[in-house]
Amino acid sequence: MAQQIPQGLEMPGPAARSRSRVQSRALLWASRRARLLAPLMTLIVMVIFFSLVTDTFLQISNFQNVATQIAPVAVAAAGITFVLLCAEIDLSIAAVATFTGLVTAAIWVNNPFAISDVVLLTIVSIVFAILLATIMGIINGVFVAYIGIPSFMMTLAMLTIASGLAIWVGQGKPIFGVPDFIRTLGGVGTQVLGIPVIGIFALAVLLICEVILSYTKFGRYVFMTGANREAAEMSGVNTRRVIMLSLTICAVTAGLAGMLYIGRLGSANPAAGDNLLIDAIAAVVLGGTSLFGGEGGIKNTLLGLLIFGVLSNGLNLIPGLDFNFKLALQGIILVAALLLNVMALRLERVQTQTE
């Protein structure tokens, strides 16, 4: 005699079992990609919110403004992503950016090399300034990786050095004069197919850094160095060289960001990039890149930049919002976004450990 199944305890049918398997797979897929999905969902929510509370947020001209505003931060953030992935920090990027911009403008205006050709003078001013930024990055890298000075202290010292040199170059005053090429590159009105050139340049820098991190041996070494430095060294990775090169790349991108700043403003100001350090690191961390190294990447940085840009722009568009309260509200929203990211990262780690 067949045993009867009590009412309410019937076995699920094929459709229910299939639906359960789909839900389990979807949950597993989402938990494995929580590092990207959390900032992506944050960005989507912000876009929907600001499109509902403002009349101009979804206009093409506003998106052009967002691209123009975050472009210098994006270039600097691309470089500092390398450093954070190595579990290091670079506090000097804002000062290096300001110094680079002032050197470029000073050479252009004063012409100390007595160059008569305008094109050659433009090339010399840009190359010389970027070369100085590169040297600063190399100095940071050598003292951190080979001498053993903590990156926090070394880059803090470089911040002071670069800030002092910037004030000395400009004598504490703005330099009103920028190469035409830089002005065109950083100009708000310069566009290609409706996209600001400054945004295209920033996207190109992000793409180059993504290729380096995702498709080269050096990129793999960066992740290995940040994830477990001792294990990387035992595997034959020259972690000191990786850290030095990462800090050098960070300084170069900071110099490029300084070029974009003076292009946007049409002058070199000693106080132009004061917020660059906080903005760049905030954008990178918002995207899900870990401050402790080994986790994240340029895709995360791009999402963080979009969150940061949309938030800053959207709050400015809300009518009647007090400026001082706007800054506080921006900080509160950023903390909430970071909290969501932290929870997502913990879910991802738990899922990884259980597999």
Commentary on this structure:
A hairpin with a 2-residue loop joins strand 1 (191-192) and strand 2. The two termini are 43 Å apart. It is globular and about 85 Å long. Helix 3 (60-85) packs across helix 12 (276-286), helix 3 packs across helix 13 and helix 5 packs antiparallel against helix 11. With 355 residues, the protein is mainly α. It has one domain: ABC transporter involved in vitamin B12 uptake, BtuC, CATH 1.10.3470. A two-stranded antiparallel ribbon has the order 1-2. The chain has 14 helices and 2 strands; from the N terminus they run H-H-H-H-H-H-H-E-E-H-H-H-H-H-H-H.
Number of helices: 14
CATH architecture: Orthogonal Bundle
Which fold does the CATH topology refer to? Answer: ABC transporter involved in vitamin B12 uptake, BtuC
Supply the helix-strand structural class. Answer: mainly alpha
Domains (count): 1
Q: Return the string of H and E elements.
A: HHHHHHHEEHHHHHHH
CATH class: Mainly Alpha
- Radius of gyration using CA atoms only: 24 Å
Strand content: under 5%
Mean pLDDT: 85
DSSP E strands, number: 2
Kindly report how far apart the N and C termini lie.
43 Å
Shape: globular
Query: What is the share of helical residues?
Result: over 70%
How would you write the strand order of the largest sheet?
1-2
Give the low-confidence spans: none
Biggest sheet character: 2 strands, antiparallel
